[in-house]
Amino acid sequence: MENMREQLENAGRAVLETRNPEETFELGKCLGKAAYAGQVCTLIGELGVGKTVFTQGFAAGLGVDGPVSSPTFTILQIYDDGHLPFYHFDVYRIADVEEMEEIGYEECFYGEGVSLIEWANLIEEILPEQYTRITIEKDLEQGFDYRRITLQRIG
Fold first, then answer.
1. What is the pLDDT of residue 69?
2. What's 99's domain CATH number?
């Protein structure tokens, strides 16, 4: 975790590796514990790469007690039982950015909570100037459960 912070501070980018879902969860948890009000994180990765596991860890780090699942059909799930409100977006099914306006995304992005947006590459034009991009990738040559997780400060 210290190495990750140092990389982010010095280069604006950190590359981490996990070898199983439990490690991916724990990394998400560490980032959730370090989250701050008004932070926006984007989560990029193919289907089945571990975005939900990572998000569950992130929510646990924020102190969210209940179950966390991907809001694929509802687009937004709000959890307010942690130490900060947690706005979990899954914009995979967004047909038009105007749908984000209808659900009040600005209140979440610029409010007192933390936003985590899955498939954020589909709504890049409305992302704030500054955010943290989290990319999760598989590398089957490294093993079935191996994940390369890149954190990058944008803006």
1. 86
2. 3.40.50.300
